[in-house]
């Protein structure tokens, strides 16, 4: 896998944070129950969980603010029922938010006409679902070409495009197979190909791999990363699995009871979890694969260096060599200038799960 944070910039060298915002949620609410819209409007878009419950409403999504940048892989995590699917559906207005704004390239999606919304969904958004959602009576080629027929493309054009994406996801030779003749992984490749057929700019994936066994799941994660290096989509990806999240994510949003309680890079969530709930998600993570040299570095104290590392290099990538060298490694910036050092002891402590941050080590 490519180490995404290590790159810190896209192929054109644009720093990630300088990329335009593709999609934003501004105080987005989705409440289920009668009179929900009045309830939240009367309170000017503010209500506690207790107030929502007292009014007999379900607070599926509450006061969500987030910004997703172009080309970013933005992961949404949370326990079952925390509101992930509802939030993602609000982003494409498959579910109508009760309150707030969803901005697509700065335009309020809740204000555009139904026709414009359908256009947007058909041409600029793609979706992949956990249960694959293939049409059982259509073969692979027809399933993948299906959204193009909805767009009104003629048969030769849509089949040509379907064949392109079939190649892209490695399904050549299976064009005539029906969904029931495919494995779970193959079915999800069809789901992915179908959602890519229309060349969406923003791609929503709701637990696309959770029905797959662990080996196939990893393979599909690699596949997604491979596709992303070619296609540079803006991706919103839901998962329950923090390991999956850290493999794929630029940033992760953690949801609980309809709220987003923290948004950060995998490293930020692991090093500085906002709540016990976030800490619980990150508990079993291999910290050496998430924490970077920058996260472990201290000021140089004049000792000899046994090597150099980049600030964004993950500890796991140099733990063996620094321990073998038995000397600190200089952490150097892009011009080769040392900005600090990492000691073998700090690496050993991290690997052993010893936290000396309070002890001044
Ligand atoms: N149509 C609906 N009517 C009433 N409540 C709903 C409706 N849809 C969702 N909910 C409730 O909203 C909450 C969030 O549901 P959602 O499906 O978004 O959760 P999720 O995080 O995607 O869960 P999972 O991980 O199980 O898919 C849940 O409490 C759910 O019961
Ligand atoms: Mg869901």
UniProtKB/TrEMBL annotation:
Please list the residue ranges annotated as the ABC transporter domain.
Answer: 40-282
Q: Which organism is it from?
A: Mesorhizobium qingshengii
Q: Which residues form a coiled coil?
A: none
What name does UniProt use for this protein? Quaternary amine transport ATP-binding protein
Q: What class of enzyme is it?
A: translocase
Determine the domain of life of the protein's source: Bacteria
Annotated GO biological processes are:
amino acid transport; glycine betaine transport; response to osmotic stress
| Record keywords, A-Z | ATP-binding, Cell inner membrane, Cell membrane, Membrane, Nucleotide-binding, Transport
| Compartments, record wording | Cell inner membrane
The EC number of this protein is 7.6.2.9
Instruction: Kindly give the SMART domains that the UniProt entry links to this protein.
Output: AAA
- Assembly: The complex is probably composed of two ATP-binding proteins, two transmembrane proteins and a solute-binding protein.
Q: What are the recorded GO MF terms, alphabetically?
A: ABC-type quaternary ammonium compound transporting activity; ATP binding; ATP hydrolysis activity
Q: Which family does it belong to?
A: Belongs to the ABC transporter superfamily.
What GO cellular component term, any one, is given? Answer: plasma membrane
The main place the protein resides is: membrane
- Which reaction does this enzyme catalyse, per its entry? a quaternary ammonium(out) + ATP + H2O = a quaternary ammonium(in) + ADP + phosphate + H(+)
